[in-house]
């Protein structure tokens, strides 16, 4: 037993737990603070008529759920409780993992949407009609709910280890091994689909640029908006791939210390925060909507969002 274990069992809170717990919770709060104005902007009726922003709204909901659970993990790192297992671990751990499953499933749909938008623009309404979009979003929430049922069952639970600052599968339970394998393999498949879609999307932009030169001024603006949004989402996918690769590969080649696990946990929270950061940094439409919500400017309804069926 190390000194940290001994201190925890004696009800003491090591200084490193204070620092790391505060860091985790503070970073999660920053993510929540960045996301809330973006979510409010996505609720704007103009943006909700646009496929990508509709998906980004609900992806943001999944991200916010994860950020709240990460905030709680920072508190659990500090609060003295019966180490190493707490009666609420299964609730928070199951919720953050289920929200991740919903997040990545809807991100796959968004990647397919971007590919269809660039490569087959005339088929957008066929594959992404308003009714189908609602169905895809509903299925993502049901997918999250299905995982939540698994994680809240007697077959598989989560525990939070204060020494590594992570929720992890409780492999002492009969179904956790299978759930872990399905969870990991499905993530690899979903990432492969997203990679294929964004690769195809980038190569398809040439035809979109050609159409831009032939269309009206309003259609050119619409195409330009689609390309800009797609490039932002492709960059976010690459960032996700980098962080997830670090998360997966690092423990296999590095002798992990609690500080390494802290860094990985922090990376995961940053992953949740990368979406609103990129939106706010590179998307002038979202920034304009947020400024309008704050009452600082009055923006005109942009016409580029009215030509989805013509793109």
Automatic annotation (TrEMBL):
Transmembrane spans: 20-43, 55-78, 90-112, 133-152, 187-209, 230-249, 261-282
Annotated organism of origin: Plectus sambesii
Superkingdom of the organism of origin: Eukaryota
Annotated localization: Membrane
Main location: membrane
Protein name (record): G-protein coupled receptors family 1 profile domain-containing protein
GO CC terms: membrane
Magnesium among keywords: no
InterPro entries per record: 7TM_GPCR_serpentine_rcpt_Srt (IPR019425), GPCR_Rhodpsn_7TM (IPR017452)
Ranges for domain G-protein coupled receptors family 1 profile: 33-279
Pfam families xrefs: 7TM_GPCR_Srt
């Amino acid at each position: 037993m190390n000194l940290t274990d001994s201190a925890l069992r004696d009800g003491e809170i090591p200084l490193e737990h204070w620092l790391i717990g505060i860091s985790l919770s503070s970073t999660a709060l920053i993510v929540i603070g960045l996301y809330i104005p973006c979510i409010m902007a996505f609720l704007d009726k103009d943006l909700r008529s646009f496929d990508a922003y509709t998906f980004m709204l609900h992806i943001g909901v999944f991200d916010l759920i994860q950020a709240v659970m990460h905030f709680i993990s920072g508190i659990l790192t500090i609060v003295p409780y019966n180490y190493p297992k707490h009666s609420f671990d299964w609730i928070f751990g199951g919720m953050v993992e289920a929200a991740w499953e919903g997040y990545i499933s809807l991100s796959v749909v968004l990647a397919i949407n971007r590919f269809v938008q660039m490569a087959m623009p005339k088929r957008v309404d066929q594959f992404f009609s308003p009714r189908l979009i609602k169905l895809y979003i509903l299925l993502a929430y049901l997918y999250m709910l299905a995982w939540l049922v698994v994680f809240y069952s007697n077959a598989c639970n989560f525990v939070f280890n204060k020494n590594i600052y992570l929720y992890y599968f409780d492999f002492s339970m009969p179904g956790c091994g299978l759930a872990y394998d399905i969870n990991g393999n499905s993530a690899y498949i979903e990432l492969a689909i997203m990679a294929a879609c964004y690769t195809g999307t980038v190569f398809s932009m040439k035809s979109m640029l050609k159409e831009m030169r032939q269309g009206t001024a309003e259609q050119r603006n619409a195409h330009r908006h689609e390309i800009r949004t797609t490039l932002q989402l492709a960059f976010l996918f690459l960032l996700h791939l980098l962080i997830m690769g670090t998360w997966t590969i690092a423990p296999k080649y590095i002798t992990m210390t609690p500080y390494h696990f802290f860094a990985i946990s922090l990376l995961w929270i940053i992953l949740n925060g990368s979406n609103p950061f990129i939106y706010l940094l590179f998307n002038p439409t979202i920034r304009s909507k947020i400024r309008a919500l704050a009452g600082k400017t009055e923006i005109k309804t942009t016409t580029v969002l009215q030509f989805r069926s013509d793109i």
